[in-house]
Amino acid sequence: MADKVQDKLSDELVNHLQGGRMVTLASIDAENGSPNILCISWLSAIDNSTLRLAIDGRSKLLTNIEQDPRVTVTVLGLGSAYALVGQARKYTERLENVALNMAGVEIKLQSVIDIMFYGGKLTVEPAYDHTYDKALAGKYDQEVFAALRR
């Protein structure tokens, strides 16, 4: 059902967001105030009201959330579409034990909204493939998700 609003993630969504899902993250562009949208996969639900993600230490997202912490994560899965609305902050300049220069961002959720259109049900979830060395991609995934959960 569209526009069903909760104040936290369901246990089912927490389990769904344990890593490797492609989601979009919208922030407010620090330069011009327009929406700035990224596709990310290094995101994990820590609990029913907290998300953590890894982002390149040079990403414009870090500047955006310093100026305005409001963000929305869009999740397509579990048969529906969800807007996870919250406040983001950089909690670490660099994730420990991760070979890549990745900053840690934490999002405290304020609302979880089912945004699927009326009468619609998602039947296939988005999928992606790594286009570089699969073994190296797996190594990075393990490092990043371990760091996000610390």
From TrEMBL:
Coiled coil: none annotated. Residues 10-95 form the Pyridoxamine 5'-phosphate oxidase N-terminal domain. InterPro entries: Pyridox_Oxase_N, Split_barrel_FMN-bd. This is Pyridoxamine 5'-phosphate oxidase N-terminal domain-containing protein. It comes from Tumebacillus flagellatus. The lineage of its organism: Bacteria, Bacillati, Bacillota, Bacilli, Bacillales.
